[in-house]
Amino acid sequence: MKDTMIGVDLAKRVFHLHVASMTGEVKDRKKLTPDQFRRYMSDVPECVVVFEACGSAHYWSREMRALGHEARIIPAQYVKPFVKRHKNDKNDAEAIVVAAQRPEMRFATVKSEDQQARAVVFRARERLVHQRTELVNALRSTLYEYGQIFPVGIAHLKKIEELLQNPHCDLPTLVVTECQDLLAQIAEKTERIKAKDKLIKELAKESDVARRLQTMPGVGPMTALAVEAFAPDMAQFSCGRDFAAWLGLVPLQSSTGGKSRLGKMSKMGQVDIRRLLIIGAMSRIVGRARHTIPDDSWLGRKVAAKPKMLVGITLANKMARQIWAMLTKNEDYRDPALVGAA
């Protein structure tokens, strides 16, 4: 049994260590460079090493595990209440140990290199989409200054192109040139986004987990990759409701005096998976998909009685629970209506 816990406050050039016994007794404090930290940890007996969640926490956790130590990652918001008085790296390292020794403390799952690589691809695509949106908004705002109003959405770029190519356009030449340059940048971003989409589809085909997830209606390669990249091992959740709560797809509680009060969706969990699940849920209840829903089904009754957005969030919650069941049981999606009929 390990009798030492080391809290590490990570940084780029210097790490602060707080070494304590498992009962909280302080043994040592150190200030080391990354190379010194690696050599120090290779010499000390096996112990519990705790990092505050940050950019390099998963990398160093894998390095510590390779040296035989038990590595844990603790969310920063759980450390903050234990910082004594002034905030500095030394006090942060001590607070990490104090927080980690709480018996009810929750830790983040250490990600593998493959998980982080998939997360990098996902984030790269998201960044390109945001950059393209910024360019489209800049283009629309420039034209708006000259009385040209275009609706929101990339689908209306063709109308803008037609305006700029019109020989009778009354816009100044400099404005036309700048707008055409923005259109060229948007086209370049679009091509790069398409390349990322193709890569994501290829990655989804390589993974059995991603393939299984895509058997569920409303879950495509993007959502499957996000679950693989950002979700922890489903075994750490005792039920599907816990996974839905981890995503922030449950009502915000404000209960007291034995009276339960539930509010809006908490939004406290993983943003990317939650957003994609809601988008996938909405794709099942709007447009042509609405006509394929049986009126006597659970979803049909919800759509008939409640606002669409509310139904979409409720369905996303149900999808999260189903994902938990699929991954814990290693089963493909089964339509509840068909299962009940069987």
Could you list some keywords that capture this structure?
342 residues; alpha/beta; Nucleotidyltransferase, domain 5; 3 domains; 5-stranded mixed β-sheet; two-stranded antiparallel ribbon; 14 helices; 7 strands; globular
Commentary on this structure:
The protein has 342 residues and is an alpha/beta fold. 54% of the residues lie in helices and 11% in strands. It has 14 helices and seven strands. The protein has helices at 34-43, 57-66, 76-79, 89-100, 113-144, 157-165, 173-206, 208-213, 221-230, 240-247, 271-282, 298-305, 308-329, 336-341, and strands at residues 4-9, 15-21, 26-32, 48-52, 70-74, 251-253, 262-265.
TL;DR?
This protein is α/β, with parallel strands linked by helices and 342 residues long. It folds into three domains: 4-100, 2-Layer Sandwich (Nucleotidyltransferase, domain 5); 113-206; 214-341, no CATH class.
Low-confidence stretches: none
Order of helices and strands, N to C?
EEEHEHEHHHHHHHHEEHHHH
End-to-end C-alpha gap: 51 Å
The largest beta-sheet arranges its strands as: 3-2-1-4-5
Helix content: 40-55%
* Gyration radius, in Å: 26 Å
Q: What's the shape?
A: globular
Strand elements, count: 7
Beta-strand residue percentage: 5-15%
How is this fold's topology laid out?
Elements: E1 4-9, E2 15-21, E3 26-32, H1 34-43, E4 48-52, H2 57-66, E5 70-74, H3 76-79, H4 89-100, H5 113-144, H6 157-165, H7 173-206, H8 208-213, H9 221-230, H10 240-247, E6 251-253, E7 262-265, H11 271-282, H12 298-305, H13 308-329, H14 336-341
Parallel strand pairs: 1-4, 4-5
Antiparallel strand pairs: 1-2, 2-3, 6-7
